[in-house]
Fold this sequence. Notes:
Oligomer: single chain
Amino acid sequence: MGGSVRSPGKLARRLRLLPLVARDVENWPAFMYHYALGFVPTRAYEFRNGARLKIGRGVDHVPIIEIFLRRDYGTPPDDAVIVDLGANIGVFSIYATATARNARVYAYPPSTSCYRRMCG
């Protein structure tokens, strides 16, 4: 299949995330639409913990799923000092500031293009 059309199997695998997305993303219908079909949103995703993320590529959904939805990186402790080397677009940095009280986060993206996306 060409373009951004998804196979039925890939679409079904992506739709399995619906419970996690609905739990954590305020504008979850937009997230599911864009993620399931491989599109890039024009507006930021808003999370129930107060965080907001705007992505610039479809692949940027992956760290959101790993960090915000599956919580693969764990929960940062309160009052932590966090150094995010290779911060990409800042997904973990934003998650850390939204979930840990009084955390100091230093984010260092790997390139100027990532820095521009991270700054919004």
